[in-house]
Structure prediction request, 225 residues.
Amino acid sequence: MAGLFKTSVARKVMMALSALFLVLFLIIHFAVNITSVISENIFNELSHFMGTNPLIQFALQPVLLIGVLFHFIMGFVLELQNRKARGGEAYYRYNGGANSTWMSRNMIISGVMILLFLGLHLYDFWVGEMNYKYIEQLAPNPDRYYHELVEKFHDPIHVGFYVLCFVFLALHLLHGFQSAFQSMGWKDDARKKVISQIGNWYTFIICGGFIFIALFHYFNHLLTA
Prediction:
């Protein structure tokens, strides 16, 4: 198994697979969160199901965490190898912008911003959830999730950072979505064009959707305060 990671091509394929796994997770996560702007009850029901289902809690969540860590660690490893192959030359200086976009040359920057966001997200929701269930051991309350969510979007600084991080995620996805499929062998022009269009729409819907959710709850709070 360890031999799979000894070649650059194998590492890129493994990173691509983890990226596609995270793309699927974002779809599910967005599908749940967007209901918070439609129906408080639906959002509470879905969140309670996901928060109490043993399969999700003790199987899928650990797999998700491992997938996230694997993807970003592998990304940093590949970046270091690319720099070493260029004799330590900084990525942004290598070949300028002649044959690549800003997004492809700065995936490491967008990756760091996404990791910072994930840290904040875990602190906001996962840590609070663990405290509620296992430290304070409070009684189950299926109606608490909506209010816990919208309270996070009362602070304009918090909302601003949230929006900024999803802008960086969009930049990351605009290059990474297509790159993941190329690593899997989809390199012909016809497929690349289709994948690029799908990636653009995916990025717009997912990242734009999450930004919309944050701004919706923020301005809704201002109007009802």
User: Anything to note?
Assistant: Helices lie at 8-33, 40-52, 54-85, 102-105, 107-135, 145-151, 156-183, 189-224. Residues 73 and 83 are 16 Å apart (CA to CA). The chain has eight helices and no strands.
